Amino acid sequence: MSGAHHLAQLNIATMKGPVDGPLMAPFVAQLDELNALADAAPGFVWRLQSSDGDATSIRAFEDERILVNLSVWTSIQALRDYAYGGRHLEVLRDRREWFEGATRPYQVLWWVPAGHIPTVEEAKGKLAHLEGHGPTAEAFTFQQPFEAPHPLEVGTEPANVTRG
After folding, report:
1. Cα(162)–Cα(65) distance, rounded to whole angstroms?
2. Measured distance CA(104)–CA(19) in Å, rounded
3. CB-CB neighbours of 21 under 10 Å
4. Residue boundaries of the structural domains of the chain
5. Is the distance from CB of 135 to CB of 105 less than 8 angstroms?
6. Could you report the per-residue pLDDT of 3-43, keeping only the tens digit for each?
């Protein structure tokens, strides 16, 4: 459908130890399973990954301990169902074992045109926008979501246009 939008999401987390260290090993050991579940989840479109199949080697921030998770979904509900249900929720509940508590926004959602693959820089900009302005249609949260933009129908003009 022309004009359709998908939901992009970024979440970040600051590791308590090196990604290849013993503290992070139980988390890393679960990544293949979690990524496979995401890839097969209803509404999944795309996720950021290196040639290793995950994003643990991608360093998007000055602090090298920050892991990034960037993905695209067909809807807020599809992402919510994956993130807060089933196996992913089990791992999410244990996150304090591996990651520091967040003192700033760590997740942001935004709408992208269907087919658009967001860049890490775009995602970082959305997170900064959320932190600076709070939830808006440009960058929002699960707690304060915004609907996808509605494209104008083809062949229509605004009502205030007069021909003369």
Report:
1. 58
2. 22
3. 11
4. 5-133
5. no
6. 599 999 999 999 999 999 999 999 999 999 999 999 999 99
What are 149's two structure tokens?
């933009």
* CA neighbor of 70 nearest in space, from 45, 41, 95, 92: 45
Residue 164 has pLDDT above 50, yes or no: no
Does pTM top 0.85 for this prediction? yes
Pairing label, strands 107-113, 66-73: unpaired
pLDDT per position as a tens digit, 116-125: 999 999 999 9
What is the tally of helices (H) and strands (E) in the chain?
A: 5, 4
Rounded distance between C-alpha atoms, residue 61 and residue 51, angstroms: 20
Q: Decide: helix, strand or coil at residue 97.
A: helix
The CA distance from 127 to 107, in Å, is 7
CA distances from 25 to 5, 16, 21, 22, 30 (A): 37, 11, 6, 5, 9
Phi-psi region of 86 (alpha: psi -120 to 50; beta: other; left: phi over 0): left
Type of residue numbered 104: R
Residue 152 C-beta-side C-alpha neighbours within 13 Å: 6
CATH topology of domain 5-133: Alpha-Beta Plaits (3.30.70)
